[in-house]
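Researcher: For the record, we're logging two predictions in this thread. I'll number them. Prediction 1 follows.
Model: Prediction 1, sequence and structure:
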Amino acid sequence: MTPTGKVLISGASIAGPALAYWLHRSGFTVTVVEKAGALRGGGYPIDIRGTATEVVRRMGILPRLRDAHVDSRRCTFLNADGGEVASLSPSTVAGGVEGQDLEVRRGDLATALYGKVRDDVELLFGDSIDTLDQSGHGVDITFHSGRRRTFDLVVGADGMHSHTRESVFGPEERFHRYLGYCFAIFTMPNTFGLSREVMMWNTPGKAAALYAVGDDDELHAFLTFHQPEPPSDALRNPDAQRDLVATVFAGAGWEVPGMVNAMRDANDLFFDTAGQIRMPHWSSGRVALAGDAAYAPSFLTGQGSSLALVGAYMLANALATNRDHTAAFAAYERDVREFVAMNQALVDNGGARLFPTTARALERRNTMLRGLVTMPSGTPRPAHSALTLPEFAPMP
């Protein structure tokens, strides 16, 4: 296969458009299909750190993302009664590098990526892959809309609950590692006068956070709780999700009752479990996976978007460098897997320390936070920057 082959990418969030950009640079003809009817704007803040910062620099969108940087000024931790435990700079808490790491709304990153590809690749919004058949010298696709097309390669960049992965590799349960937490994210009115800051309340096994991205009248609200087994019944039922969260947080202090009431009325509630996708291989035949579909690290690591950007770059570079897709997919896995493993391991190295499940662990964490108040921001966790990007293969 020459680098002028036709590639279908499923998913237009982060990994998908980033991959589309680099594949187009290499001479591929790229189609991106996205089940949503339009690009999703706004959204909760995400981080771009370490190696991923170099990817967006090479794409030419770093200045735009710096302009969109949230620049949170402080993160305040509260006890069960709402009293202050500690107030710190966000980089101290997250282990990032002040002045280098970026924090932007998810939609701002998606919009910047979309702007780099919208004139160069085919974008099919409001559609999705229905069936996928690798029996011939390509991949025969039937879309949900009924249209049929054949592509040389297909890449699933359709998130943690990837339909592409399920179609080719089997059910999610085989690859999902549940991390013991559930979370609900939604927006609510900023009646607290918060500005560019985070407030987080904790009791053992439960956390509530209010996140003011700017000075506007909207807050991102997070309700997170420990749940030994994933609540399978609630994952597909929004009413059951609201009931579960309300039951877990019944009787909680601080502003939590108001947050639960706001969740009941929210039209943008996103509920899920904290989990990772761990797979022995990220490709099968002419189909590969990228981003959360292949190696979701969970929000507990803060590295999901960064892994998506780096993985997309490395997959595109492998395809540009190797004429044979089998060799390209093997190179992609060889060069990226250790980076993925280091970032996924952050949950085992204390990535979940923000949400202690016992009173003793919570007190240990609070003691640590009080100690950080008097210390300078730490050095970055090496996982952020553990991969050095190769120079991108030039267009043939």
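Researcher: Logged. Prediction 2.
Model: Prediction 2, sequence and structure:
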Amino acid sequence: MISNTAAVLRAATLCAAVSVASAASAGVDELPQDIQDKLYNPDLLDPNQPIGDSAYRDFVAKNPPPWTIGYASSYAGNTWRAAVMDRLQNEIIPKWKDLGMIDEVIITQSNLNDATQIQQIRQLVDQGVDAIVVCCSNPTALNASVEYAYNNDVAVFSGIGYLTSPYSVNSSANFVVGGRMMGEWMAEEIGGEGRVLNVEGIPGASASDSQNVGIEAAMAEYPDIEVKGPIAGMWTDQVAQAEVQRWLATNPGKLDGILIQSASELGALRALQQSGRPMVPITIGSEMGALCYWRNNPDYVSAAIHAWPPGDDFEMIWNIMMRTLQGQGPKIQSILTTPVKMTKEEMMEAIPEDCSEQSAGWYHPGIEEWAGKDFLDNFFLRPADPEAYDPASHSAAQ
């Protein structure tokens, strides 16, 4: 356990974080101005996104490496989560074991049941993990369990969406920026007028709600676009296909486009194909099947927007976690990056000609383009290459 002095220091840090969380904070002010302007501008930020000082500015893992990590996943039923597991099990775990910094990763699944995930987090703490990563979870339901972890010196990291707890470190793209990019692209694609269907992800999940905030803000600037919905695609192609088909069957009027969050765009494409309607533009993200349809029909749309490539997104929170355990000190509660826009020319180069429109795989821009080492350095008080850390040098807070 850490000493009383360290505990008092961390408690004081937390009080400071809470007092500034709703306003401009030292953590935000410590970021480069271009990052502040692009990703932390209040006009382009989910109003519930925590941006106070991190409670982990002076945190050091109480145990030396190799560490035991808990991954409390909220869902396993879509291709996005499968791609996360692929990156975690086949790349991240072997790499960090070879570096001598992790012993094992304990994985739990709660199947969108908040009570189950809360229980699983507490069990992971009681099992003695050194840190916990949660994914795409309810922004408030887990807060008491996150505090329980913090009080037991277990750091909690929320990947691909935020928790409102001051004891969590969050990371993702700025989903409001991503939603605005999607909405603005759609408006330009259909000439600023028409009728579009909005298909959100999982209602209540911060990543879904934040994207919707951006989409609605963008659409509000185009009074000649009528937005229908939202309907819930649940970030799952099969669900999105059924919901879009149902909507099309009961809404026979003209449709000019579909705003849809990954991982659902392939489902929307299939629904359109089976409906016999014109193939109107949809917002393509990173699903390979949908990108392959575009590859085979190059004039279908003008761009894709990669809002959360799963492997890159998970590796981002993992790298933030490793830096924090090493004592690098995150400045701010939420570390955000920018969605990546892909042009037709870039798509034609990146997606192979022999791709499959039935593919359940995902395209990844790559961790260095998504949130590389130099970029993450901006968010830490004592930045260093986490892969170069010497496990033998680790000493807990004294």
